[in-house]
Design a protein that fits this description.
The complex is a heterodimer of chains A (about 120) and B (about 110). Chain A has about 120 residues and is an all-beta fold. Chain A has strands at about 5, 10-15, 20-25, 30-35, 45-50, 55, 65-70, 75-80, 85-95, 105, 110-115. In chain A, strand 4 (about 30-35) and strand 5 form a beta hairpin. In chain A, about 35% of the residues are buried. Chain B has strands at about 5, 10-15, 20-25, 30-35, 45-50, 50-55, 60-65, 70-75, 85-90, 95-100, 100-105. Chain B is built from no helices and eleven strands. Chain B has about 110 residues and is mostly beta strands. In chain B, about 0% of the residues lie in helices and about 55% in strands. The chains are: A mainly beta (about 120), B mainly beta (about 110). Chains A and B meet through strand 9 and strand 10 of A and strand 4, strand 5, strand 9 and strand 10 of B.
Chain lengths: ~120, ~110
């Protein structure tokens, strides 16, 4: 148990569906992150939020839309995804705002399959 | 950006064996972390070790920042050590860059 939870753990969706991934951290951290992990590839950072403001967007397609309503919650809204978007989506948090020099704590991930 | 290479890519060992995993990086760093990802996808941070040596039970890590590498040692391996071990680094305000990992399989 890392103090970061994600729901759902598994998600299967069609290309025309709209769904949302949820992340919650119980650590009192100031920064939250979305990562994508595809088979045989390194983890790819998607978005960074620091004190509820988006501070980084790593050229992620607009069909992925993040939302951070407060410092404990992070969402990833999905719409009109492609099969190649199937992957494990990981949420993480860290103490420092946009913390670059401290430890990141990861949630268990949502395994997404796009049909 | 910083390049991170991990070796070996795959490692299969008998329970009780010792192992050394290596992480090479291409530039100066001020953040280096080792993670273990279990077979269900959960990533657990093992060490925050931009330099020096740390130990935690059967695991220890050493980073030689001047020579741009870090080593993770696992002694007396157990089946629960199986999974993928990632090294991740960054410098300054750059994003954390992950290596492609070492997949460790411990056979009973």
């Amino acid at each position: 148990e890392t103090g970061v939870t994600q729901t759902p753990r598994h998600l299967v969706m069609g290309m025309t569906n709209k769904k949302s991934l949820k992340c919650e951290q119980h650590l009192g951290h100031n920064a939250m992150y979305w990562y994508k992990q595809s088979a045989k590839k390194p983890l790819e950072l998607m978005f960074v939020y620091s004190l509820e403001e988006r501070v980084e967007n790593n050229s992620v397609p607009s069909r992925f839309s993040p939302e951070c309503p407060n410092s404990s919650h992070l969402f990833l809204h999905l719409h009109t995804l492609q099969p190649e978007d199937s992957a494990l989506y990981l949420c993480a948090s860290s103490q420092e705002p946009a913390g670059r020099t401290d430890t990141q704590y990861f949630g268990p991930g949502t395994r997404l399959t796009v049909l | 950006g910083i390049q991170v290479e991990q070796s070996p890519p795959d490692l299969i060992l008998q329970e009780g064996a010792n192992s050394t995993l290596r992480c090479n990086f291409s530039d100066s760093v001020n953040n280096l972390q080792w993670f273990h990802q279990n077979p269900w996808g959960q990533l657990i941070n093992l060490f925050y070790i931009p330099s020096g040596t740390k130990q935690n039970g059967r695991l220890s890590a050493t980073t030689v920042a001047t020579e741009r590498y870090s080593l993770l040692y696992i002694s007396s391996s157990q089946t629960t050590d199986s999974g993928v071990y990632f090294c991740a680094v960054n410098f300054g305000n750059e994003k954390l860059t992950f290596g492609t990992g070492t997949r460790l399989t411990i056979i009973p």
